[in-house]
Amino acid sequence: MATTDVERPGVTPSGAQYLAVQASPEFKELRRTLRRFVFPTTAFFLIWYASYVLLGAFAHEFMATKVWGNVNVGLLLGLGQFLTTFLITGLYIRFANRDLDPKAAALRAEMHWVEQ
Amino acid sequence: MNRVLAAGQLGNPVINIGIFVAFVIVTLAIVIKVSSRNTNATEYFTGGHAFTGRQNGVAIAGDYLSAASFLGIAGAIAVYGYDGFLYSIGFLVAWLVALLLVAELLRNTGKFTMADVLSFRLKQKPVRLAAAISTMTVSLFYLLAQMAGAGGLVALLLDINSRFAQSIVIAIVGVLMIVYVLIGGMAGTTWVQIIKAVLLIAGAGFMTVLVLAKFGLNLSEILGSAQEMVREATTKGVAERDVLAPGAQYGVSTMSKINLLSLGIALVLGTAGLPHVLMRFYTVPTAREARRSVVWAIGLIGAFYLFTLILGYGAAALVGPDTILKAPGGQNSAAPLLAFELGGTILLGVISAVAFATILAVVAGLTITASASFAHDVYASVLKSHKVTEDEQMRVSRITAVVLGVLAIGLGILANGQNVAFLVALAFAVAASANLPTILYSLYWRRFNTRGALWSMYGGLISCIVLIVFSPAVSGAKTSMLPGSDFSWFPLSNPGIVSIPLAFILGIVGTLTSRDTGDPELNAEMEVRSLTGVGAEKATHH
């Protein structure tokens, strides 16, 4: 390969073919499935993280409230951030394996005109 | 930073050097072994897309857990308590942005560099140039932080106190890094990251177990003793700190609270814009493997930050803030001092060598990213309009790596003694301002066009750098880089809260004020490729 652009090997598929795939119900369904999970989840963890940082910056008294021994609310909320991060990762993996991969694979199989 | 520790007081420099040399020999042997595969550009820049998700995930953890995370965060927790913990939470949660929004689509769309994705459906030359400039800026900031850390670490670990001798060690680190990158390419660099990540996480895990065992697995006990030691501290201003609640570092005025917010925003949005992290997604064959690598990375990085929480409070409880602040390297010496306290000379030697290897590995990863971006985006695309062979790109990349290495050695010697965690946080702010908005828009917004990309990237990059230059981080405060002069007018030491929203807005305004709606066929191709992986799902096997 002599050029260095993004690889487009073999028979170059036409733009019209990509437009057709983009307009197909199967592709729209894949995109909708992805966005329906990813956007709300992102909004959730960003808001939860932002609330945590805001509490850390402005609500020192509240964060210092003792819960058990020397363990206080701030520490528990911080560990809660770890927990939700692990949880969201797990949920996303299950979702992507179950809902995204089969749809993407089916579309790839349709597009035999793109050299794999 | 004072350098008064008497010779031999902390461990045995011979053992420290010995363990480090062993690491270098073993990794160099591996790098030479895998380098036989570096026969074409795909092999050199991406390891032939042939790493598994798990291998790449461990390597990402290796890339990400820099000396700043290990020494810096443990030290900040030991001295400031809770506010140090906030860093690690931002660093971790940031991975969800990469996992959910960026990793897989990026893997499906690009080939070698971040600019491949950004310029896919926009005007190639201007967008590639902008992406390459921001890639190199972010990498240089990050590089500087690591090299600066190397100097302080050397002072502590090898008991080398003269500025000149430290400079020689920085130069040795730089030369080793150049050797790794030149011989090993991405495959060699990845293996160095993997080995280092395993050593670092295992070492931190082992120390955590020792600390927990000392306190009978009672977290509350560790926290209590840490607070106790802080209360008895004689260092000025330390004793009145409540290290179990936020506010010890960022709590005095409203401005410092806003500064904390700004830092929080930069941390959480920076990761998915770090070019050396993004480039790692090209070392795996498919989007599915890219996903698996992020999962491994999140697991390992999360576990590691939980360890640093225990290590930080453990260092406060067992070593005490007075001893830590008086040691050469100050805060950064908390983890090594704790290692000495727990396991004597041998454990200190192991942990020191691991910390040193960490700097070496991260620096190599940054160098290959920046040099690949120069060769692939600036030289091949912008200067030569793609009329170069891949061999020539590799040659240019290797020359760039040498130039960058020399530059990093020079800057590292100059920056020796600067605050490491601070420099890394700035790299995150630049990445979040200059890169993330354009990455997200080009993956999710069909209308997005060239003007939007250029406004957002240059606007984010320039505003971020200008605000840093005129912030108390550079001048006008005791802790500034140039404490002697004062030309600061921007009150925050982290510019994220201003420059990141600005870059997002500029992307929208630039796009909408231009009539350019792009090429619908290219837009369709990018969207179809990014979501289905068509055309990209192939690994080279040799």
Describe it for me?
The complex is a heterodimer of chains A (116) and B (542). By secondary structure, chain A is mainly α. Chain A has a two-stranded antiparallel ribbon with strand order 1-2. Chain A has helices spanning 15-23, 25-58, 60-63, 73-110; strands at residues 66-68, 71-72. In chain A, helix 2 packs antiparallel against helix 4. Chain A has 4 helices and 2 strands. Chain A has a domain at 49-111. Helices cover 73% and strands 4% of the residues of chain A. Chain B has a single domain, classed as Sodium/glucose cotransporter, CATH 1.20.1730.10. Chain B is globular, with a radius of gyration of 23 Å. Chain B is an all-alpha fold. Classes of the chains: A mainly alpha (116), B mainly alpha (542). Chains A and B meet through helix 1, helix 2, strand 2 and helix 4 of A and helix 5, helix 9, helix 10, helix 12 and helix 14 of B.
Mean pLDDT of chain B: 84
> Would you state the CATH class of chain B?
Mainly Alpha
Average of the residue pLDDT scores of chain A: 86
**SSE series of chain A:** HHHEEH
First and last CA, distance of chain A:
16 Å
User: Percent range for helical residues of chain B?
Assistant: over 70%
Helix segment tally of chain A: 4
The domain tally of chain B reads 1
Spatial sequence of strands, sheet with the most strands of chain A:
1-2
SS content category of chain B? mainly alpha
Number of helices of chain B: 20
* Total number of strands of chain B: 0
Spans of chain A of at least 5 consecutive residues whose pLDDT stays below 50 are 1-10
Tell me the series of helices and strands of chain B, N- to C-terminal. Answer: HHHHHHHHHHHHHHHHHHHH
Distance between the termini of chain B: 51 Å
Poorly predicted runs of chain B? 1-8
Question: What value does the Rg of chain B take, in angstroms?
Answer: 23 Å
Report strand % of chain A.
under 5%
CATH topology of chain B: Sodium/glucose cotransporter
The biggest sheet of chain B amounts to: none
Cα shape of chain B: globular
